[in-house]
Amino acid sequence: MKQGAAAFEVLSRTPLPEYRSLAVLCRHRSTGCEVLHCASAEPENLFAFIFRTPPPDDTGAPHVLEHAVLCGSRRYPLKDPFVILLRSSLQTFLNALTYPDKTVYPAASVVEKDFYNLMAVYGDAVFFPLLREEVFRQEGHRLELQEPGEPSSALKRVGVVFNEMKGVRSSPEMMAAAWGVRSLFPDTPYGLDSGGDPQAIPSLSRERLLDFHQKYYHPSNCRIFLYGNLPLEEQLEFLEERFLSRFERREALSQLPLQPRWGAPRFVEKTFPVKEGEGPAERATVILNWLTVETADPCALLAFEVLSEILVGHPGSPLQKLLLESRLGHDLAPATGLDAERREAVFSVGLRGTEGARVGEIEGIVLQELGRLRKGIPRELLEAALHQVEFRSREIRRRGRPYALPLMRRALRGWLHGADPVRSLEFDRPFRELRETLRDRPATLEALLETHLLANPHRTTLLVRPDPDQARREAEREAAALAELKAGLSPARLAEIGEQARRLKAFQEKPDPPAELDKLPHLSLADLPRRVPTIPSEVIFADLGVPVHFHDLFTNGVIYLDLALDTSAAGEELSALLPLFGRAICGCGLPGLPYDEVARRLSRVSGGLYAGPAAATGLEGGTRQHLFLGTRVLEPRLGEALPLVFRLLAEADFSDRARLRTLVLELKNDLRSSLVPAGQYYACLRAAGRLSPSLGLEERWQGVSQFLRLHGICRRLEEKVGEEADRLARLRSRVVTLSGLTVNLTASRQALPSIRGALAPLLARLPRDAAPIAEARAPRRRDAQPRSEGIASAASVGFVARAVPGPSYGSREGAQAAVLSQLLGTGFLWERVRTRGGAYGAYASAGGLEPVLTFSSYRDPNISETLAAFREALVSLRAGALSEDQVEKSIIGTVGQEERPLDPYEAGSLCLRRALYGVSDAIRQGRREEILRVTRAELMGAAERLLACFEEGYTVVLAGRRALEQAGPWESLFDLPD
């Protein structure tokens, strides 16, 4: 063993065949810091520094510290090494995350040198941060004069975390979920807001932040998670020599207590702001929440996971079906299900789109149904739930993140609270034990239901209702508090506030010294892979009459089937229904088989069914539009699953008006609930959709236009739902055909005979061509689109977007635009909009296949300043305000975006879309070579070209009405309906 590695003792070595890993648990002898390494053949290596950080209050100390430690450290005293890493690394994941009880600093890369570079910077950041006063004021909160240098002007409060948490509170769904859980923990740190309450954040001082770091960011309170194929000894040696050898053992002070249990349930009521004048009818959410088992007990937690799946896992689950058919609300509350993120798990179930007066009814039917299930859970529900839980555990899914992250979170369930992390990580053994227990004691889950739900008095019923006056009250209260604060300030203190603002601005604008920048480890162009990653692909089964693409990948026994249906024959009128059509295929019944029975069958035989439309511009020109329908199945279930999937595609029963009504409301509410937290996406899509026909279609399907369409339908839903059903049937006759079908398969080659045998007879039953159009319709006249549009909502912060014409994907100019957008998003815009302006994020994005470049900001307190910054960024680059080093780092970051590993589903699905849109590996390789050759002069020229067409762009901003009116005028300004 190497000398540095000898500083650790090995506590256990445990094979984990379910993850194709060997878990090695070590402890640092001097400090007690524990390290868990999941050794695997996976080339994506991940590390994470994890600290238990119970919040002491609602000031957001864990959250502010998470931001601040990444802004300069002892070895790397830069303003923002984190953003430099974003620009100059092949990282496949780089972030920091604040949880209710822990703070996590994970990073991943497929390049060994890059991995250690990231570990060097992150380790120095968490153990030896500078935590400068300017950083605290920038990331946390500060006072400034509305008009700098003018003592008579009003005060304002800004800060990145302060603005972020104001944005979080603009989403009633996010807050309902948080309040539901926190309401169960009034006597522990879990009852506090680790992210920070905007009303409490201003009371956090830098001194208290320093104390928080000194107390918790110590190796004795740290766990380090490692995953991948790099040798453990080398990683341990690196950790010892760089960081851990500087510390001695300290008593851990951060144990999280169990919540004392109650003798009776409690009722909790909260409110959220809506725009003035909006009616509160059917905008409330009601959620029942129970405190259940300890998450460190893997057997108890797994049993409860199965019970949760039985109760609410799919539309055929008893509680979900009963609540939706009760007509007491529109759809399930987003918090519904099991939350295992804390020391004790929480089970929640409820309805959104209801009224406060219905609390008792909702509570009553939930408890009544639980009482009925106590007498016996149907066997078919149990088997379906066991299948789903096992499927989720075995499936290799990344969901845009490293495969190791969910493994880390699973290990932390016990590890964070002093239990063996390997026991928390295991799945096979506790799953076998649960199977045996259910065989020997069939009523085990009924007993669990009785003990932890029906007979458990530690329950809250949460009502979250709209308050049209809340936003005004809060704004007035904040203004009054600032005015009162200012009135009590001496001229000297006002001058000090001005001086602090001047010093912060000087700190933000002063470039990092070149000598310090050189210390930051980074890759060079020579370290970059010259070849783009490729996915195995071939066309098979030519005799089946449709293109069948196949990708031979390891899938751990799962078969992924995607069907791409050309929707260009749908016509404009019917095309708008494609999102609802996709949801109806997955959520309706079949002739003679109600939707709940179909849902139960799908749950027993598949890993799920999903469908939705997508559009893109093909490289040969023209818009390609498809409905994608996919499922995932274990090979032994193939013969049961595929006939059901194809029947739903061809025969889904739209005549069940009650079910269709529910699906319409769900789709509308899902869009509404995401408009504020994901406002940047919707603003960008709406702006870019005015420059690209393909993105215009996407906006009609996924954006504000779709929400407005559904809102109009829901105003007269009882009479409109029948019309929607008829239109869905017409749409199906236009798009469900062999002539427009492409099949995509991702599996092992050994599964092909089974797949072909199941697929051939099903394809033969589909119609060859689309049904004829009953009547010709003139194309709808397109009105001129407004160049600037404000969309007013209840958001307390804004989302700003500007889209301008850009170059095409395969061109040399397109490669330059990709590097330029990376440079802007991690350079000028980050510094101007995020660092100085206080927005949570600032971005520039080349439009992929679309000839569009989009600028945007996220949770932004400024509108006019940000819009000005978009143009100023290009002016600055045109003038040559960039170095050769910045160009090289931006090329590295651009290449890194294409190097992220994909899970089998992602790989197969992406390969299908490339085939449909004409993006060959040769074209991708040519683009890589163009990116690697981008020069400083070319980036200046790219900025010049974008400036030349900047006024041809479109601006869309989603924000509060008052902020929009102050930033106007707008060619179009309208309020989002409720």
Account of the 3D structure:
- The chain has 978 residues and is an alpha+beta fold.
- The protein folds into 4 domains: 5-256, Cytochrome Bc1 Complex, Chain A, domain 1 (2-Layer Sandwich); 280-402 and 419-467, 2-Layer Sandwich (Cytochrome Bc1 Complex, Chain A, domain 1); 538-764, Cytochrome Bc1 Complex, Chain A, domain 1 (2-Layer Sandwich); 788-975, Cytochrome Bc1 Complex, Chain A, domain 1 (2-Layer Sandwich), CATH 3.30.830.10.
- It has 37 helices and 28 strands.
- Strands 1, 2, 3, 4, 5, 6, 7 and 10 form an 8-stranded mixed sheet that branches. Strands 11, 12, 13, 14, 15 and 16 form a 6-stranded mixed sheet that branches. A 6-stranded mixed sheet has the order 17-18-22-19-21-20, sandwiched between helices.
- A hairpin with a 5-residue loop joins strand 20 and strand 21 (623-634).
- It is globular, with a radius of gyration of 28 Å.
- The relative contact order is 0.11.
Uncertain runs:
775-781
Q: What would CATH call the architecture of the largest domain?
A: 2-Layer Sandwich
CATH superfamily annotation of the largest domain: Metalloenzyme, LuxS/M16 peptidase-like
Task: Please bin the fraction of helical residues.
Answer: 40-55%
Overall mean confidence score, pLDDT: 94
Task: Write down the CATH topology of the largest domain.
Answer: Cytochrome Bc1 Complex, Chain A, domain 1
The top-level CATH class of the largest domain is Alpha Beta
State the total count of DSSP E strands: 28
C-alpha Rg (nearest Å) = 28 Å
Tell me the count of domains.
4
Distance between the first and last residues' Cα? 64 Å
Largest sheet: 8 strands, mixed
Strand content: 15-25%
Shape: globular
**Total of helices:** 37
What is the structural class?
alpha+beta
